Amino acid sequence: MDAIEIKRKVCLLGAPGVGKTNVIKRYVYNLFDDKYITTIGTNVTKKVLKLVYATEGKTVDLTMMIWDLEGYYAPSSLTSVYYLGSKGGMFVCDLTRRETLQGMEDRVNAFFNKVGTVPIVFIGNKKDLVDKIEIKEEEIAELAKKYNAPYFLTSAKTSENIVKAFYVLGDAMARESLKQ
CA nearest 129: which of 103, 162, 157? Predict the structure, then answer.
């Protein structure tokens, strides 16, 4: 069975320092870096996800072009230009910094205003820092429910739930493509 090849742009969005770059590094390269280096503008990384849909008799090679966008606290017309063409979004907050959850709805709405309603997931990152957690799982669950989207509590450091989050987003994007 020949694989159906699909290429999709995914944006990772969140406040500065939430771990977007390390989430991508962990997923794509299985690496983690303790040093914080601010992303200026964007970085784009590619990863192919193989999906097998046995009941439909289809295999999909989904190439995700993962856009690591510069962290910001409030959406702007400049940053929203980077959203164009996105078929999925990953919204990341830092579980140890409450302020990173604030403004998340504005970020999601700005994203949807540019690209329409596409599959998204919410990530509460830095789950491994258990003594410093400020954001409760219920808060992220409530936000995700508003958008009918899945959420994951992750750790880029330990890799917990990183692959799962990308798989769920990739699966949703592939299913959207197969409908068309």
Answer: 157
Domain boundaries, the chain: 4-179
Q: Is 179 exposed, middle or buried (0-12, 13-18, 19+ CB in 10 A)?
A: exposed
Cross-strand partners of 130: none
Token digits of residue 112? 């949807």
Pairing mode, strands 4-13 and 86-94: parallel
> Per residue in 34-72, pLDDT tens?
765 666 667 899 999 999 997 788 999 999 999 998 777
pTM above 0.90, yes or no: yes
CATH 3.40.50.720 fits 4-179, yes or no: no
Q: CA 29 to CA 32: how far, in whole Å?
A: 9
